[in-house]
Amino acid sequence: MKLSMRLSSMSLSLLLVSSAAWAADQTTYSGFLGDAYPKMTEAKSPSGQKVKRWLEPEVVAANYDALLIDKTVLFPEPIGTDQMSVATLKEITAYMDEALKRELADVVTLVDKPGPRTLKLRVAITAAAAKDLGLKPYQYLPLAFVLTAGQTTKKATLAIEYEVRDATTDKVVGGGMRESAGQDIKSMKDKLTLEHIKPAVDLWAKDARAFVAAGNFKK
């Protein structure tokens, strides 16, 4: 009994140390955004989702009218599991790139190389998991498919961090982070797939479109 309790305590400690996911009311970050986290403030996305973000005052349509989108990365580098493979994560990043370009192409000129009056967007998926709504951060491991014991429905959840730079000077001028929920996952035996995550990606891409459109970065 004592050994069991000791192992449980050790497991909890490991989970606490390894957690790098973000929830809107927590302060545990992946590290992708470096020293930008203290600059962020809570806000609402165009769809009403709770987010954190910041932008330098110079990021306005008068100064920028083009956007370079880097390929989405996984941060930190993931280790696949039986329930969520690295191949699936790669599919998710590819779909993120597709969704962002699909949505943003209508509201800003997209370019494939740095230039004047151009912003560069770097996006990282920092966690992908199945979780209960309101689950504590230590039960939400970075880039791992986690199902805790019990029969309650889990949500396929994606944590995203992004950085905005001036494409010419490489100065960081903005950033943000958010969680988005995808489809329900009803069984601990279910694998996490792109289809579970697609709604979360689509919602974020549509919010990005609405946010950029509101800034009047005209094509």
In the CATH scheme, what's the topology name?
Answer: Double Stranded RNA Binding Domain
Low-pLDDT runs of 5+ residues are 1-27, 131-151
* CATH class assignment: Alpha Beta
* First and last CA, distance: 66 Å
SSE string, helices as H and strands as E: HEEEEHEEEEH
Helical content band: 25-40%
Q: Given the helix and strand composition, which structural class is it?
A: alpha/beta
What is the average of the pLDDT values? 76
Q: Quick one: CATH superfamily? A: Lipoprotein like domain
**Largest sheet at a glance?**
8 strands, mixed
Strand content: 25-35%
Task: Describe this entry's structure for a reader.
This protein is of the alpha/beta class. It has a single domain (19-214), classed as Double Stranded RNA Binding Domain (2-Layer Sandwich). The protein has three helices and eight strands, in the order αββββαββββα. It has helices at residues 2-18, 86-104, 194-214, and strands at 41-44, 50-55, 66-69, 73-74, 109-111, 118-131, 154-166, 172-185. Strands 1, 2, 3, 4, 5, 6, 7 and 8 form an eight-stranded mixed beta sheet that branches. A hairpin with a 5-residue loop joins β1 and β2 (50-55). α2 (86-104) packs parallel to α3. The chain is globular. The N and C termini lie far apart (66 Å). The model is unreliable at 1-27 and 131-151 (pLDDT under 50).
